[in-house]
Specification:
- The chain is of the alpha/beta class.
- The protein has 4 domains: 167 residues, 2-Layer Sandwich (Beta-Lactamase); 112 residues, Phosphohistidine domain (Glucose Oxidase, domain 1, 3-Layer(bba) Sandwich), CATH 3.50.30; 106 residues, Orthogonal Bundle (Enzyme I, Chain A, domain 2); 309 residues, Alpha-Beta Barrel (TIM Barrel).
- The chain contains 26 helices and 23 strands.
- The strands form 3 sheets. Strands 15, 16, 17, 18, 19, 20, 21, 22 and 23 form a 9-stranded mixed beta sheet that branches. Strands 7-14-13-9-10-11-12-8 form an 8-stranded mixed beta sheet. Strands 3-2-1-6-5-4 form a 6-stranded antiparallel beta sheet, with helices on both faces.
- α1 runs antiparallel to α2.
- The longest helix is centred in the N-terminal third of the chain and has 28 residues.
- It is elongated and about 90 Å long.
- The N terminus is likely disordered.
- The structure holds phosphoenolpyruvate and magnesium ion.
- The site of magnesium ion (MG) has 5 residues, from α21.
Length: 752
């Protein structure tokens, strides 16, 4: 009855430590290890399969199978029992291997005589690096004891693999995780390209001694770290309560709950008692959490598992005595790599970053908004990047194509540098246009303004040649804090912004929250469809206090200068009337209080819902200006969620239907003499901007980096000709004017 014999993983690990300390190349080491495990577990076979690449697993060492199969037997991920273990990242224990679903007969190994099979993933932080297998002739399942021991041993093998302990010449070159080139394709968070060195937001902790010599002492170390962790979480909660600068309370409460979870701590202790170092024991738990995370679809449970994962990272840092990366000591060419990051943390790194790569994140996330404000390339949802990247790795980020090259080959780097050079040349050319107007060949001048959301954006204003700030998104100041900002702080900020803008006008958009922009400190109802829910002006009109406070701050910040304010997401004339009334009453009150009133006040509305395009004439007369929020307007026009990758690119801004709708708005504004601009992201895409301008838009507001390209294009085109092309496309029943406009630009040799 060999399998139910109690197996003491501590004995195996002690021997393993001795074996690992002996000199030798990777292959020799691995050969010794499989022998040692086979003896320790009383198995007739012990084999290690390592990942050759994303697709293949290779038999790298065996005790018991035919030696000639080593480095010849390969299995795809998901193929055979070994491939299934790797794919599912979970053990497989069977007394009848040949009849277990997925079994694949590999004659070269001679394994047909072994009925029982136990395989466990060799994994580190949720990443499967290989599979460890034991086999016996007798048809019997292995005991839980053996499964656990093998898992513990697999943890050590994973740590050793990470340290490069199995690297060797020839076929063992494969045992080199995270050394070769790695490529990831994610989603565009923010355009632009950057080359630099990886800075991991959460430092990767590599344990040099994965087996502990003294489990009791190791447990004491864990207990001390847990105590420190609990104190840290309590402190965070207290700070959040008292100084209002901490993190979101729900998250903190979840942290606290996990930090006090006895089951979690006990499982880590058990692993330590079985011979693992404390850090590796925490990682073992973390691997299990990450495997669960990859399977859970429920967003709430995923979030909680993320909290647990974050907590494990904190615990690891405490054990290793490493400070979290706070952005202070980072190199000049830093590219931040993180699983996800909050807006405030990203702002802490600030201008020192050249780019950001996130494993998660969404287009509309606050981090993406900040990256946009910082004008640095951002690639989101880059799979496995935090596991692959090591601090200091060479990295290329292409925010235009949403690609990331880690530790790239020279040929890739060279091609990338050529692209950077070409873009730099184009930038130089744009710089020469800075003080020139955006006037088309047929003499139509377009006003190009920039979008902003941070004080840090303002230096771009003179540099990019924008005429002013056409959209200042004020919500960022609310999003990056844990409580409502104070009126005096806001007034001071608005004042600094107006000072920095000088003569150029700034249009402040009042707080646009809800939908994707959720304030951590504001209680919100659960909404089935937040994009269509309680957001923007709807919140402002229902919570007048915050709206009045912000308007007061704007009035005080202006210090007598002209003030331009617009309300977001107005769907009906009555909403604009009500908001305008509030503003006028604030002005009156401010005057009574003795504050200086702005020299002029212009109150505008954002047109982001189709309904407003059909508002009664009195709305167009009453509002001082209208700005089309194309991001939202397009999502509602086509009923296509702007954040849903499955649909967000499906409909074209240059579709005749959308352009005709824009034309309708242009017509209504013209009829009533209402100034009109367009400030969605499409304004910054040169060809889209051309389509909008040909439809009658005369003012565009965009991210600063787009002003040059849009201006360069507009200065080379004849609007009359483009208008004719659109009319032809319409008459021909073509869906989109884009092919015709692209062909026109190509004929004229106009690059874009
Ligand atoms: C828009 O909707 O186009 C817009 C400019 O506002 P935001 O992207 O902030 O919703
Ligand atoms: Mg909007």
């Amino acid at each position: 009855m060999p399998f139910s014999k109690a197996v003491d993983s501590r004995i195996i690990l002690t021997r393993l430590r001795e074996t690992l300390a002996e000199p030798g190349e990777g292959q020799e080491r691995l050969d010794r290890i499989v022998k040692l495990i086979a003896n320790g577990i009383v198995a007739e076979v012990c084999s290690v399969y390592l990942r050759r690449d994303d697709e293949w697993l290779e038999l790298c060492a065996t005790q018991g199978l035919k030696p000639e199969s080593v480095h010849h037997t390969r299995l795809r991920m998901g193929q055979g029992l070994v491939g299934r273990i790797a794919e599912r990242a979970e053990p497989l224990n069977t007394g009848d291997a040949a009849h277990t679903a997925g079994f694949r007969f590999m004659p070269e190994t001679g394994e047909e005589i072994y009925s029982s099979f136990l395989g466990v993933p060799i994994q580190r932080l949720g990443e499967v690096l290989g599979v460890l297998v034991v086999q016996n002739r007798e048809a019997r399942e292995y005991s839980d004891d053996v499964v656990y021991a093998l898992e513990v041993v697999a943890m050590v093998i994973a740590e050793m693999a990470e340290l490069g302990a199995f690297i060797g010449p020839g076929p063992m070159e494969i045992a080199r995780p995270h050394q070769g080139p790695f490529f990831a394709r994610g989603l565009v968070g923010q355009e632009g390209v950057a080359e630099g060195r990886v800075v991991l937001h959460e430092p990767n902790i590599v344990v040099s001694q994965p087996i502990s010599e003294d489990p009791e002492e190791e447990c004491a170390r864990l207990r001390a770290a847990i105590t420190a962790l609990r104190a840290e979480v309590d402190e965070m909660l207290e700070a959040d309560f008292l100084t209002m600068t901490g993190e979101h309370r729900d998250v903190l409460h979840a942290y606290r709950m996990f930090a006090h979870d006895k089951g979690w701590v006990r499982r880590i202790e058990d692993s330590i008692l079985s011979g693992l170092a404390a850090e590796v024991a925490v990682e073992k738990e973390q691997s299990a959490t990450r495997t669960r995370m990859s399977r859970v679809a429920d967003p709430y449970i995923r979030e909680r598992l993320h909290d647990l994962d974050d907590l494990s990272n904190r615990l690891l840092r405490l054990l290793a005595g490493i400070e979290p990366n706070n952005g202070r000591d980072i190199p000049d060419d830093a590219i931040l790599v993180a699983r996800n990051i909050g807006p405030a943390e990203l702002l802490d790194y600030g201008r020192k970053l050249r780019g950001v790569v996130l494993e998660e994140g969404s287009v509309g996330s606050h981090a993406a908004i900040v990256a946009r404000a910082l004008a640095i390339p951002l690639v989101i949802q880059a799979e496995r990047i935090t596991r692959e990247a090591q601090n200091g790795d060479h990295i290329l980020v292409d925010g235009d194509l949403a690609t990331v090259h880690l530790r790239p080959e020279d040929s890739v780097t060279n091609a990338f540098r050529e692209k950077i050079e070409m873009l730099a040349e184009a930038q130089e050319e744009y710089a020469t246009l800075r003080d020139k107007p955006a006037t088309t060949c047929d003499g139509v001048t377009i006003g190009l303004h920039m979008n902003a959301g941070l004080m840090a954006d303002l230096p771009s204003l003179p540099k990019c040649g924008a005429l002013g700030v056409g959209l200042f998104r004020t919500e960022l100041q609310f999003l990056i804090r844990s409580t409502v900002p104070r009126r005096a702080d806001l007034a001071a900020l608005y004042n600094r912004i107006l000072n920095a803008a000088g003569e150029r006008p700034v249009i402040f958009r009042t707080l646009d929250i809800g939908s994707d922009k959720v304030l951590p400190y504001m209680k919100r109802p659960e909404e089935p469809n937040p994009a269509l829910g309680w957001r923007a002006i709807r919140v402002g009109l229902d919570r007048k206090g915050v709206m009045r406070m912000q308007l007061q701050a704007l009035v005080r910040g202006a210090q007598g200068r002209p003030l331009h304010v617009m309300f977001p997401f107005v769907a009906e004339a009555s909403e604009h009337e009500a908001a305008r009334e509030i503003f006028l009453s604030v002005l009156e009150r401010e005057q009574e209080l003795g504050h200086t009133i702005p020299a002029t006040v212009r109150i505008g509305a954002m047109l982001e819902t189709p309904s407003l395009a059909y508002a009664p004439g009195r709305f167009f007369k009453m509002t001082d200006f209208i700005s089309i929020g194309g991001n939202d307007l397009k999502q509602f026009f086509f009923a296509a969620d702007r954040e849903n990758e499955l649909v967000r690119r499906r409909y074209d801004t240059l579709s005749i239907s959308f352009l005709d709708f824009i034309g309708h708005i242009v017509g209504r504004c013209h009829e009533h003499g209402t100034p009109l601009s367009f400030c969605g992201e499409d304004a910054g895409r040169p060809v889209d901007a051309l389509g909008l301008v040909a439809t009658g838009i005369r003012t565009l507001s965009m991210r600063p980096a787009s002003i040059g390209p849009v201006k360069a294009l507009l200065r080379q085109v004849d609007l009359g000709e483009v208008r004719a092309l659109i009319a032809e496309a319409r008459a021909a029943g073509t869906c989109s004017a884009r092919p015709a406009i692209e062909a026109y630009l190509a004929r004229r040799g106009i690059a874009h």
